[in-house]
Specification:
Number of strands: 13
Shape: globular
Structural class: alpha/beta
Radius of gyration: 19 Å
């Protein structure tokens, strides 16, 4: 029997009130990593709008693991603000997840004023230079960072922890054959490239304990030549499932390092991207933007064809992500055996959309896939269409 959208559902130790999760989208309102009122209000609005769980992104496990300086580092100093955030979300009737990760090759070392790590030495445009391959001691330290961060997430009142294994951030880059050229226990074969993410997930599970769900945002494909693809990501997913530490996988794809449109699809707002950057970076975008942000036509549920391969191979609960805007899409994927869907841009456009779906007042969101929300991450992530419709203030 096909589950309905608006019935309670289990996710590990949790019971979610429906099948719709707000996917992690960087909120852009963490000045110097602060837990701002805007950040709390961002997630409170999503919770009020009916989503079963909202995901805070992106919570770095260390200063070097930030995307840039205005990224939250989940440490003890952040605990009071994080507790206020989770308490607010809970008061609005939703659960709260923390997406934790290390940006790796995607980290802006100039902004962070500290070095980052990679599986193997290579040039990184976000890092604006060469990133050296990590030593074993450095990698041991990052595992400890993840475990400490998971404990802080539990102390802060988060219901779930999402480990970022996507978009060529550090753990994703270890799985990727074109980014991981190591010759030790963490490189070479598919199983060895999976070994480091396995260590991290085990450490997070150990710290999370029995009452907090642990999920992974998992790359099915890097979307780049010689990158991770289904022939290798499927075996890795089976390895992670067999370990037994994950309560679910959220399936994604693409590379914030090499292909920033693979996990968006739709229009490429290059003029807005250029305008949002310092002049030198903007000039570089004019030259290399078409390579970093290639055009893909938008399709409803665009990751579904890949995700079906994972549903066939795994018994682990799966969360479908990617261009989900319609009620019939959600009903269809639940009918195919996916346990949850994750929505992002559609909820930026209308945070009340889930409530509207439930009341049957609408059956499709208003997002037009212009992607003009993407450049707003530097000034507070928002839908520019929704913003234009707000009443003018005097």
């Amino acid at each position: 029997m096909t589950p309905t959208i608006f019935e309670p559902a289990r996710l590990g130790p949790l019971t979610l009130k429906n099948r719709i999760i707000k996917a992690a989208t960087f909120e852009g309102v963490m000045p110097r990593g602060a837990i701002s009122d805007d950040l709390i209000n961002f997630h409170a609005e999503v919770a009020r709008g009916g989503a079963a769980m909202t995901t805070v992104a992106y919570c770095a496990v260390s200063p070097g693991g930030r995307v840039h300086r205005d990224t939250l580092v989940m440490n003890e100093q952040a605990l009071p603000g994080l507790r206020r955030l989770t308490e607010t979300v809970h008061a609005e009737g939703a659960l709260a997840a923390a997406q934790i990760g290390h940006a790796g090759l995607v980290a802006n070392t100039l902004s962070n004023k500290t070095k980052t790590l990679a599986p193997s030495t290579r040039l990184s445009p976000p890092a604006m230079g060469l990133v050296k391959g990590a030593t074993l001691a450095e990698l041991d330290g990052v595992v400890a960072d993840y475990e400490r961060t998971a404990r802080i997430a539990v102390d802060a009142g988060f219901d779930a922890i999402e480990v970022h294994l996507g978009h060529n951030y550090l753990l994703s880059s270890f799985m990727s054959p074109n980014l991981n050229k190591r010759h030790d226990q963490y490189g070479g074969t598919v199983a060895r490239r999976a070994e480091y993410p396995r260590r991290v997930i085990e450490a997070v599970r150990r710290a999370a304990g029995p009452s907090v769900a642990v999920t992974a945002k998992f790359n099915m494909s890097d979307g780049v030549p010689k990158g991770l693809w289904l022939d290798q990501s499927l075996p890795i997913a089976k390895i992670l499932e067999a370990d037994g530490h994950l309560d679910a996988m959220q399936l994604t794809g693409g590379s914030s390092l090499l292909n920033g449109m693979y996990f968006f699809r739709g229009d490429v707002p290059m003029a807005e991207f250029v305008a949002s950057q310092p002049k030198l970076v903007g000039y570089g975008l004019k030259l290399y933007g078409p390579t970093l942000f290639p055009k893909y036509p938008f399709e409803e549920g665009f990751f579904l064809p890949f995700a079906r391969q994972f549903r066939e191979a795994l018994s682990l609960p799966l969360i479908l992500l990617g261009g989900i805007n319609r009620v019939d899409t959600i009903k269809g994927v639940l009918g195919e055996g996916f346990e949850f869907v994750a929505m992002a841009r559609a909820l930026l456009r209308d945070p009340q959309l889930v409530n509207k779906f439930q009341s049957e007042s609408v059956s499709e969101g208003l997002c037009v896939h212009c992607n003009k929300c993407m450049p707003t991450i530097y000034t507070g992530t928002r839908c520019v269409v929704r913003e234009a419709l707000r009443p003018a203030t005097t």
